[in-house]
Design goal:
Elements: H1 10-20, H2 23-30, H3 34-41, H4 50-55, H5 60-67, H6 69-87, E1 91-93, H7 94-101, H8 105-111, E2 119-122, E3 125-129, H9 132-140
Antiparallel strand pairs: 1-3, 2-3
Helix pairs in contact: 1-2, 2-3, 5-6
Length: 144
């Protein structure tokens, strides 16, 4: 596997850590590996005090965000497409999308219909566009 460039700052990593109170959960939310998260924090990782974690509200929404695939998978895809747009990338092969979002092929099959407008099939391979407009422009092209 090749190394990928990460455009997440130390401050963003710290903010995610404060929000999720867990290095792995924060890394997952940022779409990066937990080792990368540790490097971004520069050894500055200190767990949240027990009182802060204990006082956190445990709502159904927080449960969904942590455990419900119907919430997690679409959010990962949506967040990744937004990050692509911010980085200036307009399309990505599905295999790379799966790898970078840590979503298995079987799981993605279940949620692909939710993002049908973003998907263009080229040579029997799915290409994901950052938005439906880009996908429509790709569809209108005369492809090889």
């Amino acid at each position: 596997m090749t190394a990928k460039s990460v455009s997440i700052t130390h401050e963003q990593a710290k903010a995610a850590l404060q929000k999720y109170h867990n290095k792995c959960a924060a890394a997952r939310a940022l779409g990066i590996h937990h080792d990368t998260m540790a490097k971004l924090l520069g050894g500055a990782y200190t767990p949240a005090p027990a009182s802060a974690t204990a006082n956190a509200r445990r709502t159904l929404q927080s449960f969904r965000e942590q455990f419900d695939k119907d919430t997690i998978v679409p959010r990962r895809i949506t967040d990744f497409l937004k990050k692509m747009a911010d980085d200036g990338d307009l399309w990505i092969p599905e295999a790379e999308l799966r790898e970078r979002t840590h979503i298995s092929a079987a799981t993605l099959n279940t949620y692909r219909d939710m993002f049908a407008g973003h998907i263009v099939q080229v040579d029997r391979k799915n290409i994901w566009a950052v938005n439906k407009g880009v996908a429509n422009q790709i569809r209108r092209m005369k492809l090889l």
